[in-house]
Specification:
By secondary structure, the chain is of the alpha+beta class. It has helices at 16-20, 54-72, 137-144; strands at 23-29, 34-39, 77-88, 97-106, 110-118, 124-136. The longest helix has 19 residues, at 54-72.
């Protein structure tokens, strides 16, 4: 594993959804296995109630948990969400939000993660927990062939 996997990261090679949601890396703590991201989504994410639709908030937390899982576990596995469970604590107005994701525990084939999303006002607005299936990069590449 490189000393700092974020040193070579560029939004040019980020997933299209992360780009569309306006993802920005704020920081990563290797020892704590936490990643902090900001998202500045387009106005297209607003629902009939005039706030950010919950599915987009889940997508932001899922992106943060998946990216954190990848770099915190040494970039040797691809991951796929098995489940994501979210509690919405308050409505989120449109604007820049921040997500902190952490790896709670990881085995050889499954990782358990958590994320917290803070609205534009800095207040905690949603929490997610997820389990992700880990597939070694070499096996994932062979399966794609």
């Amino acid at each position: 594993m490189s000393a700092d996997p974020l040193a070579s990261f560029s939004m040019d090679n980020a997933p299209p959804t992360a780009k569309w949601l306006g993802m920005e890396v704020l920081g990563w703590d290797r020892d704590a296995m936490t990643l902090r991201l900001a998202f500045d989504p387009p106005r297209d994410v607003i629902n009939f109630g005039g706030v950010v639709q919950g599915g987009f908030l889940i997508a932001m937390m899922d992106d943060a948990m998946g990216f954190n899982c990848f770099i915190s576990l040494g970039m040797v596995n691809r991951q796929a969400s098995i489940d994501v469970h979210t509690h919405f604590l308050r409505a989120v107005q449109h604007g820049r939000v921040e997500v902190e994701a952490r790896v709670v525990r990881a085995g050889r084939s499954v990782a358990f993660l958590e994320a917290e999303l803070y609205g534009p006002d800095g207040e905690l607005a949603a929490r997610s927990v997820s389990s992700m299936k880990l597939t070694p990069v070499a096996k994932a590449a062979q399966a794609a062939e």
